[in-house]
Write a structure and sequence with these properties.
Protein name: Glycoside hydrolase family 2
Pfam families: Glyco_hydro_2 (PF00703), Glyco_hydro_2_C (PF02836), Glyco_hydro_2_N (PF02837)
Number of helices: 10
GO molecular function, one term: hydrolase activity, hydrolyzing O-glycosyl compounds
Structural class: alpha/beta
Organism: Caenimonas aquaedulcis
CATH class of the largest domain: Alpha Beta
InterPro entries: Beta-gal/glucu_dom_sf, Galactose-bd-like_sf, GH, GH2_Domain-Containing, Glyco_hydro_2_cat, Glyco_hydro_2_N, Ig-like_GH2
Largest sheet: 8 strands, parallel
CATH architecture of the largest domain: Alpha-Beta Barrel
CATH superfamily of the largest domain: Glycosidases
Number of domains: 3
Strand content: 25-35%
CATH topology of the largest domain: TIM Barrel
Length: 616
């Protein structure tokens, strides 16, 4: 898609008008480094299952028996295929029109599960492993001078392999318990953009609230010769906050942008990001060579801090109660892929309408467009690495590589406040007794803290904590008396960690006692309810099942009251946002229809705590 018909300096974009119109509804897929001129390659592609893994190169598939709608995976109904069988390899191909010009053309993929090889006009241009992170290729030198181009993609995704990060994708033919249909192949946007011979490749923003400043890291790519400089304008609405120009040295710019500190909290708060006031600062970037613009892009950032102080989570230097909901990020007809940008925005709006100030994105690296709407509308996000389910060297190496790419992609989103490398000891099942499993968790914790010094990290959420900034507890007991006995007034935290075993697991490992970190109930509830019987009497799954909406509402209200009034907890995360296939424990049905009125959910979720003066 072309966002504007007139090229900016440094580009020479020529995309046919009919293609502009056909893709006009798409939103730019990478919202924190947005270029004006781009073309979506979503839509109809030729498709071929290669179950025998017979073909290896783009020249080999001669028949394309199916058509698929990208970016919806072939297992989904929206793809036009809807085949949920075992398919270890599949192929994609489509043609597009693009005339070569005096610039560079970049082909980008949001995510392909699990390993991808990409050819353009028969030339291999990219290979990438990791089903949740982006990759790209400079295809300038392989473009056909006629303007007719062909892109071919091979996606390998062994449905049975458990030593790769796969999250909630089931390895059995039919989804069981808490696992869901598989997502193979392309499941996020494919697009191309034209850039100059020198262009801004990466931007990284770091808020520095203590000094009322914003850290900027920019990395360039291409021809780095000549006198290069980066010009920046930073605005809050119409108000200019900074206009600076920085010299590029060795293809990099690393600067701290000092803002004028208004001092008084009332004025300061106008510039701070929070769920209640999600203030974003808009950025215009221009790359200049000898004073002439050769690239330009838009971005945004925010001023906010997310930290831990003793037993509380702190947002912008103040204690902040986390009221979160666990969100699987699946849709009935599109699986891991979002139906539309509007659907992503609607999910953020619904979470806020139910009184939550954050979500724990469970076992999924979410689409950047979701993070954009969370940034813009004000919803905090815990980002969690999809698990592998075997402990092998291969599994750990794959997890480290993909987790590193995820942090690199999402570092600059102000909505992200916590990183979670492991969940419930998945992939490291012998943490209490096998040192190598402990080392894996501790290594990922310290690696994450090395890559991002500004956010809290939970090494392993749920139980068996070792290296962690927050202790997360998963407890699905719906007996209110049990909840009060375990976590209520007068409970000694040390006895809690020594004696309680929710899920049959110790909460902290030997040698890693509770050191005063915040304690958060990061999974609880799981109340299953569906008003209408399921087709074919399919069984629903949940931790507690009820049969009518009033019982559902009352149990939710009672649970939330008990948890919110528990002084031990610095926050909570209710399971879950929406029904997900056989899991019927959502506050919303799978189509995002509320099971009970949103106002009633919000009243229970956002009620004030009785034990803190002022109801903080």
């Amino acid at each position: 898609m072309v966002r504007a018909p007139t090229p900016h300096p440094g580009t020479n974009l020529q995309i046919p008008p009919e293609q502009r119109d056909a893709s006009a509804a798409h939103a730019y897929p990478r919202p924190q480094l947005e270029r004006e001129h781009w073309q979506s390659l979503n839509g109809s592609w030729r498709f071929h299952f290669d179950d025998a893994c017979e073909f290896t190169s783009a020249a080999e598939p001669h028949e394309w028996p199916l058509d698929i709608t990208v970016p919806f995976p072939p297992e989904s109904a929206a793809s036009g295929i809807g085949d949920t069988g075992f398919h270890p390899r599949c192929w994609y191909q489509r043609d597009f029109e693009l005339m070569p010009a005096d610039d560079r053309v970049i082909l980008r993929f949001g995510a392909v599960d699990y390993a991808a090889h990409v050819w353009v006009n028969g030339h291999l241009v990219a290979a990438h492993e990791g089903g949740h992170t982006p990759f790209w290729a400079d295809i300038t030198d392989v473009l056909d001078p006629s303007g007719r181009q062909t892109v071919t993609v091979r996606a390998d995704d062994d449905p049975h392999e458990l030593n790769k990060p796969r999250g909630k994708q089931d390895w059995q033919l039919e989804p069981h318990l808490i696992w869901y249909p598989r997502t193979s192949g392309i499941w996020q946007t494919v697009w191309i953009e034209r850039v100059g011979h020198t262009y801004i490749d990466k931007i990284r923003w770091t808020p520095k609230l203590e000094g009322f400043a914003i850290g900027l890291e920019a990395r360039l790519r291409g021809d780095l010769g000549g006198d290069l400089s980066l010009e920046l304008e930073l605005r809050h609405g119409e108000r200019l906050l900074a206009r600076d120009r920085y010299q590029v040295v060795d293809g990099e710019v690393d600067r701290s942008i000092a803002l004028s500190d208004p001092g008084i909290d009332d004025f300061r708060n106008e510039l701070l990001w929070s769920p209640e006031r999600p203030t974003l600062l808009d950025v215009e970037l221009k790359l200049l060579r000898d004073g002439k613009v050769v690239d330009r892009a838009k971005s945004y950032t925010a001023l906010r801090s997310a930290a831990v102080l003793r037993d509380r989570f702190m947002l912008n230097g103040r204690p902040y109660v986390l009221r979160m909901v666990l969100d699987q990020g699946y849709w009935p007809d599109t699986l891991l892929a979002a139906p539309s940008d509007e659907a992503l925005r609607r999910d953020v709006e619904l979470a806020k309408a139910m009184g939550f100030n954050g979500v724990r994105k469970h076992q999924k690296i979410e689409d950047p467009r979701y993070l954009y709407w969370a940034d813009k509308l004000g919803l905090m996000v815990w980002e969690e690495m999809p698990s592998a389910y075997r402990f092998t060297r291969t599994a750990i190496k794959r997890t480290v590589r993909e987790w590193t790419e995820a942090i690199d992609r999402d570092y600059s989103h102000p909505c992200i406040i916590v990183w979670v490398p492991f969940n419930e000891s998945w992939g490291v099942p012998e943490l209490p007794v096998v040192q190598a499993h402990r080392h894996a968790v501790e290594a990922l914790y310290h690696l994450t803290k090395t890559l991002d010094q500004t956010r809290a990290v939970i090494g392993n959420d749920g139980w068996e904590s070792s290296a962690t900034d927050i202790i997360g507890i998963h407890d699905y007991d719906s007996n209110l008396e049990h909840i009060r006995e375990r976590y209520g007034a007068g409970v000694d935290p040390e006895k809690l960690f020594d004696r309680r075993r929710p899920g049959g697991r110790v909460l902290t490992l030997d040698g890693h006692p509770h050191r005063g970190q915040p304690i958060i109930l990061t999974e609880f509830g799981g109340i299953a309810f569906q008003k209408e019987p399921q087709p074919g009497d399919a069984k629903i799954w949940g931790y507690t099942q009820v049969t009518d909406d009033e019982t559902f509402a009352q149990l939710y209200e009672q649970l939330l009251r008990a948890i919110i009034d528990t002084a031990l907890f610095s926050g909570f995360c209710y399971t879950q946002f929406a029904d997900t296939f056989q899991e019927a424990n959502g506050l919303l049905y799978a189509d995002r229809t509320p099971k009970i009125p949103l106002q009633r959910i919000k009243a229970a979720t956002s009620r004030s705590r009785n034990w803190i003066p002022g109801g903080v």
